[in-house]
Design brief:
Layout lengths: L1 H7 L32 H7 L2 H21 L25 H11 L13 H19 L9 H13 L15 H6 L8 H16 L5 H4 L5 H9 L6 H17 L4 H19 L5 H13 L7 H11 L12 H14 L4 H10 L6 H16 L3 H19 L4 H8 L5 H9 L1 H18 L3 H17 L1 H38 L4
Helix pairs in contact: 3-4, 4-5, 5-8, 6-8, 8-11, 10-12, 11-13, 12-14, 13-15, 15-17, 16-17, 16-18, 17-19, 18-19, 18-21, 19-22, 21-22, 21-23, 22-23
Pfam family, one: B56
InterPro entries: ARM-like, ARM-type_fold, PP2A_B56
Main location: cytoplasm
Length: about 500
């Protein structure tokens, strides 16, 4: 059987003087001299008819199926069956399309990387073959024939859509410090996976890939399985997936609504069920680019995405892992439609942390970015609950929270909004400012509180004096109530002690 398989492989032929082309590019290790392409797909497609592609792919697929049946279930045995095919530059131009399909079929074999010493020679043969395929796709200048596209997708699917290794954090509580301190898990199969990802990325980006033809094979099922890979522990894989999905979104317009909906479903599952997913930051980064391209006025679907997905994403404990990307997405919405500022600010207040100071500092930073894009009308709708929360932050014993809240006055735009509404805002924040100036343990917070206090005093001295007097009256009343309460307790203690049973 093995002899029959080897007999079907073409004999190595002498070069025919074709021109050598560049290698796979800087993002991959440069292929060796004997793996570089020697012609382009334009010449090949002119000389070989589509029927030749079909027959070659069919025969080659049958050969590999037979070899698998005779050997092992996951890859060829080391001794026979998996041998390097001729280089593209060593065969005549008419044979290159068929050789391309055979190399694709050859790379559908998946090896076990759990043992680095197992099938080492075959793994290296496959790696070199993948590099040749990358080079071949990169140098193509003619449209890929119809029979090539499903073979590329089949090879990509066979390598990428795999059972993930068991996650070491599966039985641990998803705490922020756990995820920050642990090293990311690196997939041992990455030497092959990286090249497969690069091949697929270049295939998607290639102007020779017909979108109308490819969309039949890069369908909804394929996209869902691709999105499932975003939960990979390996950050290198997630980075490739992010770029590839973004290119698919840009090239296949028909799939755009489905991609948005599928990502939305991942967010729902993460927020309301698991709170465990490794690729939320990368998915949000994709959405940041998508939101940037939304046409105005915004569709109701997009506004619902903000309310039902982006704002609730502030709830999980691990928000620090993706907060930068989330903040960018939310700010993009406010910059697109300033009327959404009220919805966003009230959403932030709804999920405002109570006992997590580091999370509170992040929320204050995001709040500043949102307020920078907020117009006076929207600001007035939410300023009372907003500055009640800011006042609580000013009173925080955690100096970073109080300091970050005081930094809001460093923005000229936010300071202007506050000044124009000082009659409402000053009575809310002055008690916290006064207490900070008199007794906060941190010197920086005291100094910043004095500066903010001076801003209000210089802007409207009469209003400031009125609010200060009211504050002092309330403080005196509270002191009187405390003293009366202490007197009552002291009297009760005396009565209780006098009636003790001896």
């Amino acid at each position: 059987m093995i002899k029959q398989i080897l007999g079907r492989l073409p004999k190595k032929q002498a070069k025919s003087g074709e021109k050598e082309l560049a290698g796979a590019g800087p993002s991959l290790p440069s292929p060796t001299a004997d793996t570089r392409t020697t012609t382009d797909l334009t010449t090949s497609s002119r000389l070989v008819s589509p029927s030749n592609y079909a027959s070659t792919a069919t025969n080659q697929g049958q050969s590999f199926v037979a070899a698998r049946a005779a050997g092992v279930s996951n890859g060829f045995p080391a001794s026979a069956g998996y041998e390097a095919l001729p280089s593209f530059r060593d065969v005549p131009a008419p044979e290159k399309p068929g050789l391309f399909l055979r190399k694709l079929a050859m790379c559908c074999v998946v090896f076990d990387f759990a043992d680095p010493t197992k099938d080492a020679r075959e793994k290296e043969v496959k790696r070199q073959t993948l590099l040749e395929l990358v080079d071949y796709i990169t140098s193509a200048t003619g449209k890929f024939p119809e029979h090539v596209v499903p073979e590329v997708i089949r090879m990509v699917s066979a390598n990428l859509f795999r059972v993930p290794p068991p996650a070491p954090r599966e039985n641990k509580a998803l705490e922020l410090f756990d995820m920050e301190e642990e090293e990311p898990v690196m997939d041992p199969a990455w030497p092959h996976l990286q090249i497969v990802y690069e091949l697929f990325l270049r295939f998607i980006q290639s102007p020779e890939t017909d979108a109308k033809l490819a969309k039949r094979y890069i369908d909804h099922g394929f996209i869902v399985r691709l999105l499932d890979l975003f939960d990979s522990e390996d950050p290198r894989e997630r980075e490739y997936l992010k770029t590839i999905l973004h290119r698919i979104y840009g090239k296949f317009m028909v799939h755009r609504p489905f991609i948005r909906k599928a990502i939305n479903n991942i967010f729902y599952r993460f927020i309301f069920e698991t709170e465990k997913h490794n690729g939320i930051a990368e998915l949000l980064e994709i959405f940041g680019s998508i939101i940037n391209g939304f046409a105005l006025p915004l569709k109701e679907e997009h506004k619902l995405f903000l309310v039902r997905s982006l704002i609730p994403l502030h709830k999980p404990k691990c928000v620090a892992m993706y907060h930068q990307q989330l903040s960018y997405c939310v700010t993009q919405f406010v910059e697109k439609d300033c009327k959404l500022a009220d919805i966003v600010i009230r959403g932030l207040l709804k999920y405002w942390p109570v006992t997590n100071s580091s999370k509170e500092v992040m929320f204050l930073g995001e709040l500043e970015e949102v307020l920078e894009a907020t117009q006076p009308a929207e600001f007035q709708r939410c300023m009372v609950p907003l500055f009640r929360q800011i006042s609580r932050c000013l009173s925080s014993s955690h100096f970073q929270v109080a300091e970050r809240a005081l930094f809001l006055w460093n923005s000229n735009h936010i300071e202007g909004l506050i000044k124009h509404n000082s009659k409402v805002i000053l009575p809310v924040v002055l008690p916290a400012l006064e207490r900070n100036t008199k007794g906060h343990w941190n010197q920086a917070v005291q100094s910043l509180s004095l500066n903010v206090r001076k801003i209000f005093m210089d802007y409207d001295p009469a209003l400031f004096e009125e609010c200060r007097e009211k504050f002092e009256e309330e403080e005196a009343q509270e002191a009187g109530m405390r003293s009366r309460c202490e007197a009552r307790w002291k009297r009760l203690e005396e009565i209780a002690s006098s009636k003790e049973v001896k």
